[in-house]
């Protein structure tokens, strides 16, 4: 057993050509730079972070505060610089660290904007910090040729394949449920609104299309990584990556995620493909010094060593990645309804939910109870996402209790009547409307006040 | 057969077959009869929105004319005619105030039409201040000192004897003339812009953020919530933090037609839902719902609650002043507020979810 492990570790440390990692670094850096500019240009920094009264916190990251407008813009500026640094391989590790920290900070500011693909970006940039992706075709090499190496230990490339694999496979596993497979929900709801698209539009009104898409997406997510790894199927698999992500990008507002996947999965292509790309790119620059050594010389170049602590950190990292999506099993009730253990698990575009949450604040002395106008404190998107997620409902209730106490309400009791519709079914109460939320503390434990009994799903 | 060929093609073929066998039980019947959103938008434009604005503009022109007649020869009849013209115009506004988009939306320094001419409560002290300064250019950001309800204040703030007397003063006359002209200018711009905007409105028939259906739907929700929160909830002291009713916040504080305007406004919500316009019931959100997954079930529960709202509204005494009912915390007002609150989810989250419309005016990524 111990021998197997040692063999496996040895295998992971085998030197392999670095080229796939280099293209990955450049594509990721460029896309992130583009994404940051896009976010800025669309006015989303202002939409999300300026004139916002209240932000929803991540459990354990309550200390991450919304910063003043200038600082939010500055953070995005630094993020852009980090992304460019990653692309060029300039002060590479610092750039990756800068990008990781700024990007993650911005994400942590408000839980409202949690998206699986932002989580993915945070994770990839974290992984980029630990790999020597600047040891070839980078400005760091240009300025300091000594660090050049055309080979890296195998793990430095494979961790990205594993990460992508985890995303797809868990996204696939999540689709194994009655609504998705047997009822083709929510696609039966999501596709018809696209019937006005030119040419292919009418197809989205067919029931068959919703079934075809549901099942295709299931097989795609479950198996695509294996087909990408296996040489005979790789090209066809990649074509389906392009097809799949173009289609989802066309139909759903998922930003640059399709591009990230279409570019990111290049890492599954062989070294020769990447080397050709890089050779072409360096011809463009016509700077011999930029890529000082020809491929033939690479035997002489020392491989970057793998420190032991990196092995430990990565093992723990991937263990967490593999376990986290299963934590929902520790909670009772239907995961899609309660959302306990829902995040960080690659449950992507899986369920159609919407809610109306009406909060009531009661003065403990006078007994007078009033209705809250949520929009007084929340942005449209904050209200929309809060209205079906129990942990956010609780946070907002606590905010209301504090706010109205300051306004002179004596020991405010806050309750909420929350009706949620899921996959087109008639809406139902999500939580006990009589519970005083102000008296409840959030924790990892099951929220007893979620109504889970008697659900048909 | 080489391994290469067995692999992907076969698997792909396999699941295409699986998919077909699952779905072909329905023989490729569209689940959903092809719903024509353009036809719905056309009904809204031709039979609801444009007629509402045109009707309203005639009424505000009437107001302007009667006011000018009064100016020429101020007497009690002239005052009463102007007051009547205001009431007619303001009731007509209730049929148009939900269409706060397209030509009515915010552009540059101009706020949206509702913010420009429909703000309440008005700032009485502010109005007095501006008119005493002769500030008839209205070149300020205090939109609660002009519009329909500032006109109401000046035309109804006291007994007609007092009013007849004070409306002889030039500063009051000039200010009223200025804000009546302002009202007409704003409406004229919108009325004139709609015919040109109409095609764009009908052709923008998608469902994403910024499309006509999405914008119309979002304004519909906003309008409905205005009724619930600001026309009923706030004056009745139903909002969190309030310690009692605040009748001064009722919509028509001076002319006391709050109940009529409330009814007119809710009737507009009803008309939008059913697509009821010039030619009776046309294609509206109701028909759209009939054509989506889960729609018929929603319609059933929605309409039961909508009937409860109507019943609660009918229960509000018409022989009493709305202001006083609110002040006395009359049970009928409470009941109306509760029913409106209960109805919210049907219009808001249930409908948006089934129709695939985002409850938002700004774009965003999802996953």
Main interface: chain pair and counts: A-B, 77 and 69 residues
The percent range for helix content of chain B is 55-70%
Name the poorly predicted regions of chain A: 294-300
Q: CATH topology of chain B, what is it called?
A: A middle domain of Talin 1
Helix content range of chain A: 40-55%
As a percent range, the share of strand residues of chain B is: under 5%
Could you say which structural class the secondary elements and strand pairing of chain B correspond to? mainly alpha
What's the number of helices of chain A? 18
Topology, number of strands of chain A: 6
What fraction strand of chain A? 5-15%
CATH architecture of chain B: Up-down Bundle
Morphology call of chain A: globular
Radius of gyration of chain B: 25 Å
How would you spell out the order of helices and strands of chain B? HHHHHHHHHHEEHHHH
Q: What does the oligomeric state look like here?
A: heterodimer
Rounded Rg of chain A:
25 Å
Integer average pLDDT of chain A? 92
What is this entry, summarized?
The complex is a heterodimer of chains A (457) and B (367). With 457 residues, chain A is of the alpha+beta class.
Keywords:
heterodimer; A: 457 residues; alpha+beta; 2 domains; four-stranded antiparallel β-sheet; two-stranded antiparallel sheet; 18 helices; 6 strands; 7% strand; B: 367 residues; mainly alpha; A middle domain of Talin 1; 14 helices; 2 strands; disordered N terminus
């Amino acid at each position: 057993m111990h021998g197997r492990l040692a063999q496996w570790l040895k295998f992971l440390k085998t030197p392999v050509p670095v080229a796939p990692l280099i293209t990955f670094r450049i594509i990721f850096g460029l896309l992130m730079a583009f994404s940051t500019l896009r976010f800025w240009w669309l006015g989303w920094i202002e939409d999300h972070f300026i004139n916002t009264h209240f932000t929803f916190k991540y459990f354990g990251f309550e200390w991450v505060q919304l910063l003043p407008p200038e600082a939010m813009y500055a953070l995005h500026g630094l993020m852009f610089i980090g992304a460019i640094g990653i692309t060029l391989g300039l002060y590479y590790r610092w750039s990756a660290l800068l990008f990781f920290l700024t990007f993650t900070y911005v994400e942590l500011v408000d839980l409202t904007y949690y998206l699986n693909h932002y989580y993915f970006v945070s994770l990839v940039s974290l992984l980029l910090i630990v790999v020597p992706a600047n040891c070839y075709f980078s400005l760091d090499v240009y300025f300091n040729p000594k660090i050049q190496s055309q080979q890296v230990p195998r793990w430095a490339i494979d961790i990205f394949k594993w990460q992508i694999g985890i995303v797809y496979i868990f996204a696939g596993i999540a689709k194994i449920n009655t609504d998705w497979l047997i009822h083709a929900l929510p696609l039966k709801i999501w596709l018809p609104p696209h019937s006005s698209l030119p040419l292919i539009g009418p197809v989205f009104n067919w029931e068959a299309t919703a079934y075809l898409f549901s099942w295709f997406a299931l097989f795609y997510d479950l198996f695509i990584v294996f087909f990408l790894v296996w040489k005979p199927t790789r090209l066809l698999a990649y074509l389906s990556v392009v097809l799949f992500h173009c289609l989802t990008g066309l139909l759903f507002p998922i930003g640059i995620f399709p591009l990230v996947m279409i570019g990111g999965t290049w890492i599954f292509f062989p070294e020769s493909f990447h080397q050709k790309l890089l050779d072409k790119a360096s011809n463009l620059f016509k700077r011999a010094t930029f890529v000082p050594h020809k491929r033939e010389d690479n035997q002489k170049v020392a491989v970057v060593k793998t420190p032991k602590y990196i092995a430990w950190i990565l093992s723990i990292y991937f263990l967490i990645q593999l376990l986290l999506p299963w934590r929902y099993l520790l909670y009772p009730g239907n995961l899609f309804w309660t959302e306990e253990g829902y995040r960080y698990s690659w449950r992507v575009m899986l369920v159609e939910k919407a809610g109306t949450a009406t909060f009531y604040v009661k003065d403990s002395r006078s007994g007078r109870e009033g209705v809250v106008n949520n929009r007084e404190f929340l942005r449209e998107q904050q209200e929309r996402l809060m209205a079906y997620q129990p942990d956010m409902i609780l946070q907002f209730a606590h905010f209301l209790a504090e706010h109205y106490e300051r306004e002179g309400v004596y020991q405010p009791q806050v309750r909420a009547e929350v009706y949620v519709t899921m996959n087109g079914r008639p809406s139902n109460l999500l939580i006990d409307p009589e519970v005083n939320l102000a008296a409840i503390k959030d924790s990892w434990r099951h929220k007893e006040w979620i109504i889970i009994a008697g659900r048909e799903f | 057969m080489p391994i290469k060929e067995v692999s992907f093609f076969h698997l792909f073929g396999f699941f295409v077959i699986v998919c077909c066998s699952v779905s072909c039980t329905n023989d490729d019947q569209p689940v959903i009869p092809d719903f024509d959103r353009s036809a719905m938008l056309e009904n809204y434009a031709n039979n609801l929105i444009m007629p509402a604005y045109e009707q309203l503009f005639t009424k505000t022109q009437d107001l302007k004319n009667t006011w000018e007649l009064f100016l020429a020869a101020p007497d009690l009849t002239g005052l009463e005619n102007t007051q009547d013209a205001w009431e007619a115009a303001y009731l007509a506004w209730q049929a148009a105030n939900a269409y706060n988009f397209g030509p009515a939306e915010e552009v540059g320094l101009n706020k949206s039409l509702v913010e420009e001419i429909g703000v309440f409560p008005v700032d009485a002290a502010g109005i007095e201040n501006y008119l005493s300064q002769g500030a008839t250019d209205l070149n300020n950001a205090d939109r609660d000192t002009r519009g329909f309800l500032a006109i109401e204040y000046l035309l109804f703030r006291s007994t007609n004897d007092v009013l007849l007397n004070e409306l002889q003063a030039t500063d009051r006359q000039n200010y009223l003339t200025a804000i009546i002209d302002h009202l007409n200018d704003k409406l004229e711009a919108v009325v004139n812009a709609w015919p040109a905007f109409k095609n764009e409105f009908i052709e923008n028939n998608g469902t994403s953020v910024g499309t006509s259906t999405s914008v119309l739907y979002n304004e519909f929700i906003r309008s409905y919530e205005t009724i619930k929160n600001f026309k009923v909830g706030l004056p009745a002291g139903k909002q969190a933090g309030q310690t009692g009713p605040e009748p001064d916040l009722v919509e028509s504080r001076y002319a006391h037609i709050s109940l009529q305007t409330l009814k007119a406004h809710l009737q507009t919500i009803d008309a939008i839902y059913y697509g009821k316009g010039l030619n009776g019931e046309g294609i509206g959100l109701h028909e759209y719902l009939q054509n989506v997954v889960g729609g018929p079930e929603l319609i059933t529960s929605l309409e039961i609650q909508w009937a409860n709202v109507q019943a609660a509204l009918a229960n509000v005494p018409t022989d009493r002043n709305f202001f006083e009912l609110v002040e006395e915390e009359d049970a009928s007002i409470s009941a109306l507020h509760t029913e409106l609150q209960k109805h919210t989810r049907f219009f808001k989250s249930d409908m948006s979810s089934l129709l695939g419309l985002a409850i938002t005016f700004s774009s965003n990524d999802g996953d």
